[in-house]
Amino acid sequence: MAGEGRGSGLADGTPAAARPAAGPEALYRQTLAGYGADANGLVCGFHFLPGQSGAPLGTDEALRWLQRPTDDTDPGFVWLHFNLTHAKALPWLQAHARLPEGFFEVINALGSRSTRIERDGHTLLAVLNDVTFDFSFDPNDVATLWVSLGPRLVVSARRQPLRAVDRLRAAVNRGEPIASTVALLEHLLGDQADELQRIHRAAADRVDDIEDELLARRGTHHAGELARLRRLTVRLQRLLAPEPTALLRVLGSPPRWMAAEERELLRHAGEDFSVVLRDVLALQERIKLLQDEAAAHVAEQNNRSLFALTMVTVLALPINLVAGLMGMNVGGIPLADHGHGFWIVVALIAVVTAVLALLALRWWRRAP
Q1: What is the spatial distance between Cα 94 and Cα 155, in angstroms, rounded to a whole number?
Q2: Pairing assessment for the beta strands 77-83 and 153-158 based on DSSP bridges
Q3: Are strands 153-158 and 142-149 parallel, antiparallel or unpaired?
Q4: How many folded domains does the chain comprise?
Q5: 71: region left, alpha or beta (phi > 0 left; psi from -120 to 50 alpha)
Q6: 189, 269 Cβ separation under 8 angstroms
Q7: 365 in a domain, yes or no?
Q8: pTM of the predicted structure, to 2 decimals
Q9: Alpha carbon distance 222, 290 (integer Å)
Q10: What is the torsional sign of CA 212, 214, 215, 218?
């Protein structure tokens, strides 16, 4: 299954094999026109009926469904997923989706975008952060998904392709039935928790390798990588962890259309996140300890280098002292008239230097 926003066909469902050949310029224009979505920014849409898999919806079918009267007896619900980088996506949603104003306000908000689920009148508003589809262990590869959820309509919007949405879309395309809008949100949260667990496992494996090298005193160049991994875990914990107070408020005062089993689904999703986040916090502590260990190794190496530099200075002290004395060109210099005076002085300097070298070698071996 291709990535979310990176399917093997056109946005209207045309398979790749049926596309006419296009040169680089035509493909570039097609990319600019589509942004991984159709003409109105719709990446994918599905209509779910009880006990059945989701049926794909285009913009026209979604518009006809949205224009149905509120007392329509359709037992199913619709999920519409939009790409906000498309210029027509937000205007289309504002004109046809009848979403609460809070949904558009939180999309345009410049402040905190921590993961949370809160009630907005008769709907639920979710702000979910997940890693991008091309995630490469960079702390900046985290993007936001905005979700408005009612009893019969789920609208999600993003600016970058996300892993959790891609997994949910793949599950729907495989024919997995989803009973309700809350079940879809729970599935999305579960996929997000699984992705966070995968990142934690990969980061923990790398930390294990670094720890082995540090304990073997071979890892003296991992300070930058440890700092990057710690920044990654801190950012994931800060952005992906759902706000517990907001979720508790939703569970304590849910919309009237939410059944008891649906509240239980959200509670289980919050518990799954708590388990994963405890593992992430434990990994943060391990990385902090390894940073201290790496700093101690660097300090030890600096001390040994300084000790070696000091010993070299001490070993050079006799010859420098004698050279300074002999270079004064004053009367009374010892052995000035002796036929072997030069060699006698050289022998004395060699003996003193050898004694100092033996002492320095002994101190070096005793050093930790």
Answers
A1: 12
A2: parallel
A3: antiparallel
A4: 1
A5: alpha
A6: yes
A7: no
A8: 0.67
A9: 9
A10: positive
Answer yes or no: is pLDDT of 79 > 90: yes
DSSP string, 30-99: HHHHHTTS-TTSEEEEEEE-TTSPPEE--HHHHHHHHTS-TT-----EEEEEEETTSTTHHHHHHHHS--
Residue 119 β-bridge partners: 124
pLDDT of residue 109: 79
Q: pLDDT-derived band of residue 24, with 50, 70 and 90 as boundaries?
A: very low
Give dist(CA 42, CA 169) in Å, integer.
13
CB 164 within 8 A of CB 192: yes
pLDDT at 90 over 80: yes
The answer for residues whose C-beta is within 8 angstroms of residue 151's C-beta and 6 or more apart is 77, 180, 181, 255, 257, 258
**Which tokens is 254 given?**
């849910």
From the CB of residue 258, how many other CB atoms can be counted at a distance below 10 Å? 21
- Establish if 81 belongs to a structural domain: yes
Q: Which range is least confidently modeled, 8-17, 27-36, 189-198, 231-240?
A: 8-17
> Domain of 283?
16-295
Strand blocks (E) in 233-279 = none
Contact 294, 219 (CB under 8 A): yes
Q: How many Å apart are CA 285 and CA 187, to the nearest integer?
A: 30
Mean pLDDT of the chain: 78
3-state secondary structure of 162: strand
CA quadruple 183, 188, 191, 197: dihedral sign: negative
User: Do the domain assignments include residue 1?
Assistant: no
**Any idea what the CATH number is for the domain that residue 170 is in?**
3.30.460.20
Q: Is residue 321 a part of any domain in this protein?
A: no
* Rounded Cα–Cα distance for residues 324 and 330 (Å): 12
Express each pLDDT in 114-158 by its tens digit: 788 888 888 899 888 877 766 666 666 778 889 999 989 999 999
